[in-house]
Amino acid sequence: MKRSFIKWLGYLFFFVFLIISCAGTELTHKQVNEAYKGKPVSNILVIAITGNEDSRRSFERKFVAQLKSVGVEAISSEQAIPMPPDLELKKEAIENAVSRFKNDAVLITHLIGKEEKETFVRGGGYYGYYHSRYMGSYSHDPGYSNTSKTVRLETNLYDVKTEQLIWSGQSKTISKDSKGQIIDDVIKVVIKDLQNNKLISPK
After folding, report:
1. Pairing mode of beta strands 105-121, 144-159
2. Taking 50 as the threshold, does the pLDDT of residue 166 lie above it?
3. Would you state the pLDDT for residue 85?
4. Does 203 map to a domain?
5. Which of 39, 45, 49, 134 has the most CB within a 10 Å radius?
6. Distances 131 to 25, 84, 85, 138, 156 between C-alpha atoms, Å
7. Across the strands, what pairs with 154?
8. Contact assessment for residue 64 and residue 74, using Cβ atoms and an 8 Å cutoff
9. Which band of pLDDT confidence, cut at 50, 70 and 90, is reported for residue 21?
């Protein structure tokens, strides 16, 4: 009995470790253009591609705020460009904006995948599990449901003068947090990698 209990605890700790290790945000793919010869960019136009106007505003504002917090000048497309009814920005409008605000780079983010998964977490300790199985019903199991979100985004950074791709990254976030927290985590990971590669610098 004691050996079985220890073995069961081992499975439990492994399961908890697996959940913890899967949580958070990571860059699953990234590409740094080694041929890029320009200096680190310091004034960025931030564009989020989404069919939801509120989501676009929220993402762009958060990205601009975090860039400014590390000394990089930035402006959102919401501030720089009148948004047409179909939410599609034309190239001329983007060019006019970067000329007006003297941006040296354009950063574009879009959603490439999203899913939600609900899992049932059993509660009540080992006897709660034993008792519910003994009674032959899950109705006695004092467990609870968890819903985790998996969000995948792609972010590209372009040089304004040459329209050359400087950096590209795909992020994956697994979280039970709010959409706002997920956005914050993604932006932090992206900015950190741009800093590590010396692609952005304070203005």
Report:
1. antiparallel
2. yes
3. 82
4. no
5. 45
6. 38, 61, 59, 10, 54
7. 110, 170
8. yes
9. very low
Q: CA 22 to CA 64: how far, in whole Å?
A: 28
Residue 176 has pLDDT above 70, yes or no: no
Sheet with strand 144-159: strands edge to edge = 24-32, 165-175, 144-159, 105-121, 43-49, 73-76
Q: Provide the b/e sequence for 87-103 (b: ≥16 CB within 10 Å).
A: eebeeeebeebbeebeb
In a domain, 92, yes or no: yes
Residue 182 banded pLDDT, cuts 50, 70, 90:
confident
Burial class (CB within 10 angstroms; exposed 0-12, middle 13-18, buried 19+) of 81? buried
Checking if the pLDDT of 14 tops 50, the result is no
Question: Is residue 38 a part of any domain in this protein?
Answer: yes
Per-residue pLDDT, 136: 58
Nearest C-alpha neighbor of 111 from the set 166, 150, 74: 150
What is the domain range of residue 80? Answer: 25-196
Residue 17 lies in a domain: no
Taking a C-beta distance cutoff of 8 angstroms, is the pair 157, 107 a contact? yes
- Burial label, 168 (beta-carbon count in 10 A; 0-12, 13-18, 19+): middle
- The number of domains in the chain is 1
pLDDT at 18 over 70: no
